[in-house]
């Protein structure tokens, strides 16, 4: 009895995915998450899951960062990206960062069925346009490699830095002291090879869907 994980913050789309999976695999066990934090908890609780259907725009992550980090933490878990961003370059980048498939959110039921079936059989699946798009840039692969070394908590802190939060605000959100946040930031800078939080956010920003739109965070003493 296969176990499939669905990670999407939109309840209506999770419902649509549940229906699609039920048609292909009526006996499948489905587990859901609506944020990156909930997803990490879910994946830890289901280490033998057969497939993760992952939305790119989950709260708590930007672009391909959650995909890259999950691939590092759980390399045995096949991940299919499901997204409303359907540009061929976005689909190709998802595949280059370790997804075994890409399903556009505009796909009809037959396409969803085919994609899920093919992936569960061990194949890759993506629209033909994805395969002819340019590969992800070398600097993007470099950023992905650095991001893989972060712990889940460091990943959360980095995403909050990218959202413009200061140490005190991050500590409040995570329920830890400001000193603990500073220690995390120091470790993040070291692992990413960054000199300050602005540089760290810009490195991680290479994995954003629109890297040029990344706004540097406010600087403060680390």
Automatic annotation (TrEMBL):
Keywords annotated in UniProt: DNA-binding, Phosphoprotein
UniProt keyword Phosphoprotein, yes or no: yes
Lineage top rank: taxon: Bacteria
Matches recorded under InterPro entries: CheY-like_superfamily, EvgA-like, NreC/VraR/RcsB-like_REC, Sig_transdc_resp-reg_C-effctor, Sig_transdc_resp-reg_receiver, Tscrpt_reg_LuxR_C, WH-like_DNA-bd_sf
Pfam families, alphabetized: GerE (PF00196), Response_reg (PF00072)
Domain Response regulatory: 3-120
Alphabetized PROSITE patterns for the sequence: HTH_LUXR_1, HTH_LUXR_2, RESPONSE_REGULATORY
Residues carrying 4-aspartylphosphate: 55
This protein's record includes keyword Chloroplast: no
Domain HTH luxR-type: 143-208
Name of this protein: Response regulator transcription factor
Organism: Lysobacter niastensis
Lineage, opening ranks: Bacteria, Pseudomonadati, Pseudomonadota, Gammaproteobacteria, Lysobacterales
